[in-house]
Amino acid sequence: MAKKIVILNGSPRKNGNTSALVRAFTEGAESAGHTVTEFFLSGMDIHGCKGCFSGHSGRECPCAQRDDMDKIYPAVKDSDVVVLASPLYYWNMSGQLRTAVDRLFALEEGDGNLLRGNDRASALLMAAEGRGFEDAVLYYDHLMEHLRWKNLGKVLCGGVMNTGDIKGHKELDEARRLGRSI
Questions:
Q1: Residue 108 pLDDT class (50, 70, 90 cuts)
Q2: Which of 22, 35, 124, 160 could form a disulfide with 165 if both were Cys (CB 3.0 to 4.6 A apart)?
C-alpha cells in the first residue's frame, strides 16, 4: 500500500551529503510507489518553540506562532512516515531539525493528540565528518519511544565532510533500500 512520507531535511546545504542521502531515500521510496514530500528546513522561516502551551491540535494551524511550520503541520498530520534527516552537529541533529521537531509539539496539545501513536513510523538519515552518532541516535530512539512511532531504520554515514564526499559510499544504497522497504 502506498504511503505518504514527509522528510524534514535539517541540512543547510541543498547539495550536501545529507541531502544526497535524502535523494537516494526518495528515489527508493518513489520507485516503490510512495509519495514523498521534503521540507528543506534551512530555507524556511521557522521560529523556536516559546513553551507557551497555547497550541491546539484541533486547529488548522495548531501552534500560536505563524511561520512556515504552518506548511509542515498538515503534511505531518496526513503522513504515514516522517523521516528525520540531518548532518551531525556537536553530536546531535542540526538546530534546524531540532527546532522543527520541538515545534511539532503543538500537534500533541489540545483535545486530540495528532502526533503520538497513530500508526506512524520514522527513519533517520545522517551524514557527518566524524562517526560519533551515539548521542543523536540516543535522542532519536527516545523520541521514537515518546511518540510511539515505529523505527524503520537508520542510515548513518560518517567520514563525509565536504559536499560530494558521500559519492560512492554504501550508505547511499542503504538509504535507497530503506526508501524501497517502506
A1: confident
A2: 160
pTM, whole model, 2 decimals? 0.96
d(CA 67, CA 127): 28
Confidence of residue 73 (pLDDT cuts 50, 70, 90): very high
Q: If we measure between CA atoms, which residue out of 37, 49, 149, 148 comes closest to residue 106?
A: 49
Query: How deeply is 71 buried, as exposed, middle or buried, from its count of CB atoms within 10 A (0-12, 13-18, 19+)?
Result: middle
Give the CATH number of domain 4-181; options: 3.40.50.2000, 3.40.109.10, 3.40.50.360, 3.50.50.60. Answer: 3.40.50.360
Asked if residue 152 lies in contact with residue 180, where contact means CB atoms within 8 angstroms, the answer is no
Residue 73 in grid coordinates: 503541520
- Whether residue 158 contacts residue 133, with contact meaning beta carbons closer than 8 Å, is answered with yes
Closest by CA position to 5, among listed 46, 33, 35, 31: 35
- What is the C-alpha to C-alpha distance for residues 110 and 13, in angstroms, rounded to an integer? 35
Percent of the chain with pLDDT over 70: 99
- Percentages helix, strand, coil for the chain (3-state, rounded to 5) are 35, 20, 45
